UniProtKB/TrEMBL annotation, chains A, B:
<comment type="function">
    <text>Catalyzes the condensation of farnesyl diphosphate (FPP) and isopentenyl diphosphate (IPP) to yield geranylgeranyl diphosphate (GGPP) needed for biosynthesis of carotenoids and diterpenes.</text>
</comment>
<keyword id="KW-0479">Metal-binding</keyword>
<comment type="similarity">
    <text>Belongs to the FPP/GGPP synthase family.</text>
</comment>
<keyword id="KW-0602">Photosynthesis</keyword>
<protein>
    <recommendedName>
        <fullName>Geranylgeranyl diphosphate synthase</fullName>
        <ecNumber>2.5.1.29</ecNumber>
    </recommendedName>
</protein>
<dbReference type="GO" id="GO:0015979">
    <property type="term" value="P:photosynthesis"/>
</dbReference>
<dbReference type="GO" id="GO:0004311">
    <property type="term" value="F:geranylgeranyl diphosphate synthase activity"/>
</dbReference>
<keyword id="KW-0414">Isoprene biosynthesis</keyword>
<dbReference type="InterPro" id="IPR033749">
    <property type="entry name" value="Polyprenyl_synt_CS"/>
</dbReference>
<dbReference type="InterPro" id="IPR000092">
    <property type="entry name" value="Polyprenyl_synt"/>
</dbReference>
<dbReference type="Pfam" id="PF00348">
    <property type="entry name" value="polyprenyl_synt"/>
</dbReference>
<dbReference type="GO" id="GO:0046872">
    <property type="term" value="F:metal ion binding"/>
</dbReference>
<keyword id="KW-0125">Carotenoid biosynthesis</keyword>
<dbReference type="InterPro" id="IPR008949">
    <property type="entry name" value="Isoprenoid_synthase_dom_sf"/>
</dbReference>
<keyword id="KW-0808">Transferase</keyword>
<comment type="pathway">
    <text>Isoprenoid biosynthesis; geranylgeranyl diphosphate biosynthesis; geranylgeranyl diphosphate from farnesyl diphosphate and isopentenyl diphosphate: step 1/1.</text>
</comment>
<dbReference type="GO" id="GO:0016117">
    <property type="term" value="P:carotenoid biosynthetic process"/>
</dbReference>
Length: 281, 281
């Protein structure tokens, strides 16, 4: 990420936009997507680390770009992100729009630059394809945000594009970086994405419980169906465990299969919300 | 463009965002950049028309994306574009942000798809590099817009990135599509870009004259230096002719050199503002 940034921070560039780019990506969040990507690349032998590094950085740049645009006044109108003012609050709305746009361009630029340096243009092209598909329309994160402007939402398409798309990109791009076919890796990404979605639903429900001072039921929690509304807290927790078991089972046969399964289990523990005592069996 | 759009307009996509994408690119403006790109590709032999077609569409998609974002309330707050309401007026501000983002992703996607179909991944990767560089930071159109947030503007960098960058992309990408080295083609793009800039300055000055009812002088017209402020109307007109002559002279030796010179002359006539009688010699 720092290397990617170095490329755009030159004296001839407009200074505030340069600073806003750093501000938007450093210090990072949990960097879950690049971690998954590098783990999958490692499991596939990672014969070209410069390519998987570039892929991990590009994926995280797109994720950061989407956060900057999602925080804008016309979407979430968020004041803070990762404990500091959002980009449009710290720099201005025009600079936030341009920061998102510039990060997107930079993501694609570093992929093809790495491809050129490593004589791996085919991998670079495949990475660009995966990243653009999982980010744009009709099935990427832009589509996910777009669903929020529809009167009636196709919930499966909404979750698949808004949350799962960049997790699918993580596993696909990890495989591509190491010269493997991305297709068998899609299920793992989709299942990890689904797990994050259900974990979010659970966390929201448990926070609501705390706020309301009473357990939440199986009714509609936020005017939109979610895992807890459909299955209840214990049911959603069990569903989450099932999804994660499915994710581990979906790992294609590869040299680093066992290590990758460990990584997924570790991520799973990190996202699994702790249930209050009354839900313990 | 229509083929590119077809790819994103599927039943599983959010309908309003799908419609907004069409709305943003159809019907088009003058399509000057893709015209230049295809003319350069033609002059270089255009041995892979599917690649140059994709490049022309990708370049125009990025141009359209930049118009949609530039029209947003936080930038120009424009009500109309190409004779109809701007995307954010017709669809909403969130959908306008997403339209720009989706068009950017789509541009890169169609480049690598064409590369894959034509077994021309190297060309596709080079095209992605040119387009991302000319669109992003530190020297592309994002940088150009970024300069407008600076207290003191580096005018040369501003014009180079805001106006010239996508013209440089037109000539570079035309050459790359046909398998030629892009480097010798950069000057032509930069000079055409500069010509557009001076022609714009002239047109603005002549419109101001009409509005004020008196000729404009060599003073600063809009609080920022421009060709007319520096050279006067007749001087700027002469400068524009010089730039265009330089553009034609810069055309690298290639099979279709003569036809390309004709195209540049035709474009030049189209952009050359008609001077009122008092400026005729």
């Amino acid at each position: 990420m720092a290397r990617a940034l170095g490329r755009v921070q030159v004296e001839t560039a407009p200074a505030k936009l340069s600073q806003a780019l750093s501000y938007a990506i450093l210090p990072g969040g949990a960097r879950i997507r690049p971690t998954i990507l590098l783990s999958v690349a490692g499991a596939c032998g990672d014969d070209c680390p410069a390519m998987s590094d570039a892929a991990a950085a590009a994926l995280e740049l797109i994720h950061c770009a989407s956060l900057v645009h999602d925080d804008l006044p016309c979407f979430d109108d968020a004041d803070t992100r990762r404990g500091k003012p959002t980009v449009h609050r710290a720099y201005s709305e025009p600079l936030a729009v341009l920061t998102g746009d510039s990060l997107i361009m930079l993501a694609f630029e570093i992929l093809v630059r790495a491809g050129r340096a490593e004589d791996a243009n085919l991998r670079a092209a495949q990475l660009v394809l995966s990243l653009s598909q999982r980010s744009g329309m009709p099935g990427g994160i832009c589509a996910g945000q777009g669903w929020e402007s529809e009167a009636s939402i196709d919930l499966r398409a909404y979750h698949m594009s808004k949350t799962a798309a960049l997790f699918i990109a993580s596993t696909e791009m990890g495989a591509i970086s190491a010269g493997h076919d991305p297709e068998p890796w899609r299920d793992l990404g989709a299942l990890i994405g689904e797990a994050f979605q259900v974990a979010d639903d659970l966390r929201d429900a448990l926070l609501d419980e705390e706020a309301l001072g009473k357990p939440v039921g199986q009714d509609d929690l936020h005017g939109r169906p979610n895992a807890v509304a459909t299955l209840g807290v214990k049911g959603a927790r069990a569903h989450l465990s099932d999804i994660l078991a499915g994710a581990i089972a979906s790992i294609p046969s590869c040299p680093g299969e066992a290590d990758l399964a460990k990584m997924v289990r570790r991520q799973a523990q990190a996202i699994m919300p702790k249930l209050p005592e009354r839900y313990q069996v």
